[in-house]
Design goal:
Layout lengths: L4 H12 L4 H13 L1 H13 L5 H13 L5 H36 L6 H22 L5 H4 L1 H6 L4 H26 L4 H36 L2
Helix pairs in contact: 1-2, 2-3, 2-4, 3-4, 3-5, 4-9, 4-10, 5-9, 6-9
Length: about 220
């Protein structure tokens, strides 16, 4: 027997104690607006990556387990929110454009124009896979939309790939929250570890790149 909307939302807050912070904010949106509230939360998470989907999505799944909304509604609205947020970032990249990107790149130290050209060539070959798989990688799931806009990937293709990748990511986290019940916050702990690993690898790669550039410039000096 499902709880009423207000009772389920009240129990949701009491059982998992998302009284403040991002969890409390997301719980408030879901309590007030149901599926559309979860969609708004995820759209904002895409535009502002510091908002963690690993909190919002499992919490939405837990709400679904208590009858606040259906699983179908949770997946539909969170995926729609993901696509809307991604399209906003795609638009930012498209407005910024290749010319501005090259002008900005030319002002950066330790980089060459050829590096950007190679990156663009790589994206031209592998952009579809990058957008699809990138939607399932913490941190980069939001950022991948910007280069897609800069390179003007056809919008219907971008939307289709973003929808597919987001649906997979959202389904995993929403269902995890649904199945874990009031232990939904465990999901955030595990995904948080993955996020830190991804960031760590990115920092290591950047440090390696900078080191090789510095050494290369030293060798070029007479």
């Amino acid at each position: 027997m499902h709880l009423t909307l207000s009772a389920a939302a009240h129990w949701l807050s009491a059982a998992s104690e998302p009284q403040g912070g991002i969890a409390g904010w997301a719980a408030g949106l879901v309590e007030t607006f149901g599926g559309p509230g979860a969609g708004v939360a995820i759209a904002l998470e895409n535009v502002f990556p510091p908002l963690p989907s690993e909190v919002i999505l499992p919490l939405t799944g837990f709400a679904a387990s208590q009858g606040v909304l259906s699983i179908a509604s949770a997946l539909f609205w969170t995926t729609l929110g993901s696509v809307v947020g991604a399209v906003v970032l795609y638009g930012v990249g498209a407005v910024f454009g290749r010319e501005r990107m090259h002008a900005w790149w030319a002002k950066l130290p330790l980089v060459k124009a050829s590096d950007l050209v190679r990156t663009e060539a790589w994206f031209a070959r592998h952009g579809t896979k990058a957008v699809l798989l990138g939607r399932m990688v913490p941190v980069f799931r939001s950022l991948i939309s910007v280069p897609a806009g800069v390179e003007r990937m056809p919008l219907p293709v971008f939307v289709a790939l973003t929808t597919a990748g987001s649906l997979v990511w959202n389904t995993v986290l929403v269902m995890a929250g649904y199945l874990l019940g009031d232990q939904w916050d465990v999901v955030g702990a595990y995904v948080g570890v993955v996020s830190k690993v991804v960031l760590g690898l990115a920092v290591v790669a950047l440090a390696f790149y900078v080191t090789m550039r510095v050494r290369g410039r030293r060798r070029e000096k007479p």
